[in-house]
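We store amino acids, tokens; thus:
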Amino acid sequence: MRTASIDNRNFLLRRLHSLFGLLPVGGFLIFHLWENSQSRFGQLHYNEQVVGWLQSLNYLTLMEIFVIALPLLFHAGYGLVIIHGAEGNWYRYPWLHNRFYWLQRISGIGILLFLVLHVGWTRIWGIWQPEIKADLFSHMQLLLGNPVTFLLYLTGLLLAVFHLCNGLWTMAISWGLTTSVDAQRYWFYFCMLLALTLSAMGVHGMLGFIA
């Protein structure tokens, strides 16, 4: 019989999964949205004060691997395991949070596909074309100037923000932080407000590249 205790391997993996989803993956998402929102200050500011500052950090590659890439891979990989073992009850229980449960899983798959495109168009492409790294603002301006690419980035943005904020709501329940109905309701309101705020910041940043 399975028990929800620290002796249960699945219990520990799920806790690590949710923890990595918040920190550092969720934290990096918020930072990345803020970083891209600096596009509204123009090409020179973005390339020198934002991208240039990041590229000047010591041990940047190690931080990208151990603080971003590996936690993200674990979160995504175990998320796929959870999806594989989930029961299909979308129509059986037509409650809001049951729908959100499945949207959480669907958004995770969508985010993975988007990340492949985003990393390919920016980091991987920049390896073969150093001018992209030197002028990332112009590169993003060219990408987002295409309506199809803009729509893909907008979809990826909204999926990522929803995944983070809905994950925050469910994480508070699974970690025993919101045990009452009122606490869960008010925390849900906060998480949705955070989702709107982060979405607005992300869209603002996208528009800053092409305005």
Summary: Residues 47 and 136 are 7 Å apart (CA to CA). Helices lie at 9-37, 43-55, 60-85, 96-128, 130-134, 136-144, 147-174, 181-210.
